[in-house]
Write a structure and sequence with these properties.
88 residues, rod-shaped, alpha+beta, two-stranded antiparallel sheet, single chain
Length: 88
């Protein structure tokens, strides 16, 4: 699936989802263009929210007695989400 990107020179070109969050050279002028995507602040907020939710649920399930395990679980889920987001 391709996504449109726009350069300051006015050129519109197609990028792939794998390029989201990266930098691509404009085919018209060669200038580096930031490609919006999964590193946008909204995506980061969603990742952080999911991480906090996993931590909270794990802490509730374990009765708050095993919070380090909850933190490790939250970190693992956060890393997994990041890896999945880079593969999309």
């Amino acid at each position: 699936m391709s996504e449109p990107a726009y350069c300051d020179c006015g050129k519109m070109f197609e990028t792939t989802r794998a390029q989201a969050g990266g930098i691509v050279n404009c085919p018209g002028c060669g200038q580096a263009v930031d490609i919006p995507g999964l590193t946008d602040p909204a995506w980061r907020a969603m990742q952080f929210g999911a991480l906090v939710a996993v931590f909270a649920v794990t802490a509730l399930v374990t009765g708050y007695s095993d919070v380090p395990t909850g933190a490790a679980c939250g970190l693992a889920v956060g890393v997994l989400m990041w890896l999945i987001s880079r593969a999309l």
